[in-house]
Amino acid sequence: MSAWPTELRLDKSRTLLTVSFESGERFELPAEYLRVESPSAEVQGHSPDQKQIVRGKHAVKITGLEPVGNYAARILFDDGHDTGLYSWAYLHELGRDREKKWAAYLQALKSRSLTR
Prior knowledge:
It is a single chain. It contains 4 helices and 6 strands, in the order βββααβββαα. It is α+β, with helices and mostly antiparallel strands and 116 residues long. The chain has a single domain (5-110), classed as 2-Layer Sandwich (NE0471 N-terminal domain-like), CATH 3.30.2020. The strands form 2 sheets. A 3-stranded antiparallel sheet has the order 1-2-3. The chain has a 3-stranded antiparallel sheet with strand order 4-5-6. The longest helix has 14 residues, at 98-111.
């Protein structure tokens, strides 16, 4: 499936990004979730076993959205993180798999005795 967005909307509090797709799907993605699942090498590493568990981002806010060509957006966060390029397909995946990914993140924090 080719995920093509029709709208990216940041709420006034800068803590929720709503992404709508041509398919009619619409996902509300919290800033904290987007930050801890950043597609950057800093978070994801260069292979699945290198993924970092990012903690302490409960209050992070989105400070900007920048288009990258016609395939992605760079999301800028108030903690200085700005290296993740969120492709349309990745934003769709984050929306589609949000419950599963969020549960895995919370479990990873718990297993390491870390907090959000």
